[in-house]
Design a protein that fits this description.
Blueprint lengths: L1 E2 H8 L3 H9 L7 E2 L6 E3 L1 H15 L4 H9 L6 H39 L1
Antiparallel strand pairs: 1-3, 2-3
Amino acid sequence: MYRISEFSKMTGLSKETLRYYAEIKLLEPVYVDPKNKYRYYDNGSYLVARLLVHLKRFNFTIQEMLTVVNDESFENLEQLILKKRQGLVDQIKDLENIIEDMDQFFELELGESADD
């Protein structure tokens, strides 16, 4: 078992994040010592923590992460990631359209001002 400081280093999640995740029941320690309140995590916790690091990087919300973690079979994980991926692709398209509009604005609006 790993104390929170060691687990934090192993996973890349700060101690504050781990405490918050425990508070919202996203990633709870497997054991809390009743005497000193030290939190302990195990190898199973490590796998969940690494998954959460990836989901956070993939822009999953806390609620979406809770959905994934509560689905112990991870049956819907692929679909959720593909849905999130498509959202990012759509955002990229939207940003490309905005850039295109800016380019056209410069050509039409500002180009005419230079010709005057």
